[in-house]
Amino acid sequence: MQLKSALSNFAAFTLLILSFTMIACASPAPAPPALAVARSGEPNNVNGLVARGDVSDQCLDLVVKLKADVDIFIGDLDKCYGTPSCDPKPIIVNIVARIRACIDLIVKLQGTILIKLDVIIKVVVDIIIALATACGKWVIKLGLDVYLTIFVDIDVVLCALINALVVLEGSIKLKLKLLLVVQVQLLITACFNGLIKILALHVNKLAIESYDKYPRAQVVRDLSAHPDHGLIFGSGCRSRDLHSHSATRATPGFSLLSHVNMGAPDLRLGDFIPGLLVPPEANVHLTIGIHFLLAALYTLTITSRPRTYAVIRILLGIPAGYIFYHYAFHPYDAPRRSVETGLAVVGLYGIMRVIDTCLVDLLVGVHTPPRWVVDGKVLPLPTTFFGRIGYSVDYLLSLRGTSIFKNTTWDWIVPSAKRRMPPPTTPRITFICSAMWSLTKQYIVYDTLDALNKSRVWDTNLPYPITNGGLSVPEQLVFAFSVCAGTALSISVPATLVAIISVASGAPVEAWPPMFDAPFSAISLADFWTRRWHSLFRRVFDRLSLGILHGLEKVHAPLPLRLRKTLRAVLIFGLSATLHLLLMYRLPISDTHYHPAFFDHSIMMFFLSQPAALLVERMIVEPLAGGNVWVTRAWAWGWLLCSGRWWADVWVRRGLWDPKEKVVGYSVVRGLLYGNWTP
């Protein structure tokens, strides 16, 4: 079938996107058990069968009351966790007894669940997740063997609860599996092996066999001793640390690649790429938001009926923006502060993309969708269904104007990124070798800076630990340099690693230019900010500032060109300041860390002083330098180091240099100097 009209194309695309979220509901499921039961005392009397009624309301009441009671017990369990010498066993006994009482009442129900199945399943899932979260963190405090002897009954009784519900509705097990599949890491953290098994979640076959044959504690020891018996999904517990009782707090969402060592080499990739430590439930929210944004981007290619599709974009942008906001600021149980800020970065970027896609053109008054440029020629917007899908996905993934397609860029590509693009004819192996050498150098510098940053104990209760924390001026400048270089490396190291993997997997080499263009060789402050620094937010900042300026001009009057250019620079740094204010404000409040008001003085000073410094450079420094690049270079780096002290204050007091914050999985510097290879 060929789709002719633009509206039918959009409808087909929307249905395609919706299908991804409907797979769970549309999956084949076992038919419910027969809607009839034998009369009491007549199990074999077929003629004595009576119709089974719907017991949804009774079952829902039971599980809701169970959840309320379990929440109370979990509160007691959390209090016990924070109390020295508190024994959790009596609380666990009460939880198990309460669940068993609920099971007994469910078993007595005569009927089937017809109406409120999804609501019941959601309540049961909430109970399981709450218990797994509350119980999992006790692994480290008690040790694995003691933990299993106390908490094993919860796993068993949850299995019994599910089996009791299955009698009333056979499809419950499958639906529970679909909802809990993203929580496998959490269930493994709590060692709910029986629950994982009966739901047929992703567990290695040999692990299942071991579960059947050996005691639970022995199974876990076997899994840690034999590489072939490892669980497919990661756990929050590192087995080698469980037995030494020296691991950090077990946290849902820890990645297999970064924290589980079950006989295979532990690459600790989560320390190099914090994104691997994002809680799984956050990824679900992000995926939903991306689908809404993708549908909005699809409408950009439809030029007929622009007003209609502008309204559609706004309607799609509202849920997308809300979901990205939720992703940015929901209190997920993230293991580190760097992961918390990473969630905020992605969520806020998503919100800015939504505003760019749905609102900026309305403020500007011109609908100008971006275009592909192939071999130097600007292409028209795609008109086929799959062409529009490719356009939408490529535009969604492009942060700097590069493309996932060979010999292709976007017409808005950032000039600095275009200069850094490797030639399309670059051999793949040459690119990979060059990137690996660059990654090695970045790693050594990053490791050295991290060792320097953590060489002292910082007083994070001070509002200004760098500029007013007893450091000499040279020391302040050293740590200002460290935070500037460390910020760059925190972006460049993961990006380089992903570029290597992508190109090795077949991506075009020109799609992966370096994130930075030798920032230390900048000849001026303007050169540093416009050409050398990363351009990840350049597109959205440019578009948002353009929309704001057009809005001001509609209210006021057209601005003179020079004033307009100056205001746009101020707006861009203002947007950057707002972004970083939100990033830091997202971090949790702690008694051990200074938590300023939203308008953090240090952040405001650093970002809002940059346009003033650029103006000074243009009006005073450059005329005095007379074309001598060393003068402008000295000015640029002198200013960046002096102002960087304000940003370093923020970095230290918000805990981003705390010992538990990891930036490298293995430390060559600390290994050679102190024998500490795993900081």
TrEMBL record:
Functional pathway: Secondary metabolite biosynthesis
Segments passing through the bilayer: 146-166, 178-200, 284-303, 310-329
Domain called Wax synthase: residue spans: 512-599
A Pfam family per the record: MBOAT_2
GO biological process: lipid metabolic process
Highest rank taxon of the organism: Eukaryota
Membrane topology per record: Multi-pass membrane protein
InterPro entries: Wax_synthase, Wax_synthase_dom
Protein name in UniProt: Wax synthase domain-containing protein
Gene Ontology CC annotations of this record: membrane
Similarity comment text for this entry: Belongs to the wax synthase family.
Primary location class: membrane
Cell location: Membrane
A molecular-function term among this protein's GO annotations: O-acyltransferase activity
Residues of the signal peptide: 1-26
Keywords, alphabetical: Membrane, Signal, Transferase, Transmembrane, Transmembrane helix
